[in-house]
Design goal:
Length: about 210
């Protein structure tokens, strides 16, 4: 495995405007990207961040807490414990269903490195990543249901918001897998444009079905 060199001491990066907490999160993402979640111990992370283990635990009590913090820092979630799901899902932020789906997909693109890491760890059965992944899926389901009930009740007639939310969640994940595999935007290489087009298609299909 490659090694990650310890970053400068606290005083150095704080003078540069980087907080100790941010320093730990940046180091954690770099280390986990190389070694995986399971292969990165809190002791490894402390060493790479130029800290002792006790100092690291002062900021993050567990690896699970650290993973959640990375997701929050990347702007993908607000608070898993509150089940708010992706931070962007609020009633007033979007013009409609296609706009909301497009925003989620683009937010995933912005944290693609971390999502790829999480997907790989979950598929390998890494327990901490799996636990966080389940919580994130549940939070996303809750947020989608809430948004649909408030903003697009018309597409929920018949099957109900939970069923439509599950379909949308599967659509989002499946589309991201297509992007990762290089088959969704193979002709143009423009993932953002492809996401916008597919989001519009999904919204049109749902609206025409109910």
């Amino acid at each position: 495995m490659g090694s990650v060199s310890a970053l400068p001491p606290t005083e150095t990066h704080e003078r540069a405007g980087v907080s100790q907490r941010q320093h730990i999160l940046d180091t954690a993402l770099a280390l986990m990207s190389q070694r995986g979640v399971d292969g990165t111990s809190m002791r490894d992370l402390a060493s790479a961040a130029g800290l002792n283990v006790a100092s690291l635990y002062h900021y993050f009590a567990s690896k699970r807490e650290l993973l959640v913090a990375v997701l929050q820092e990347r702007g993908f979630i607000d608070d898993l414990a509150a089940s708010t799901g992706p931070a962007a899902i609020t009633r007033d932020d979007f013009d409609g269903l296609a706009d909301m789906l497009d925003d989620i997909l683009r937010s995933m693109l912005e944290v693609e490195d971390f999502i790829r890491l999480m997907l790989g760890e979950v598929m390998r059965g890494e327990e901490t990543a799996h636990t966080v992944g389940v919580e994130l899926f549940d939070a996303t389901q809750t947020a989608l249901e809430r948004w649909l009930e408030e903003s697009e009740p018309g597409v929920c007639k018949g099957p109900g918001a939970p069923a439509v939310a599950r379909v949308l969640r599967a659509f989002i994940i499946g589309l991201f897998f297509e992007h990762v595999a290089g088959v969704m935007d193979a002709s143009t290489g423009d993932a953002r444009a492809a996401f916008r087009a597919r989001a519009a298609e999904a919204a049109a299909v749902l609206r025409s079905s109910f």
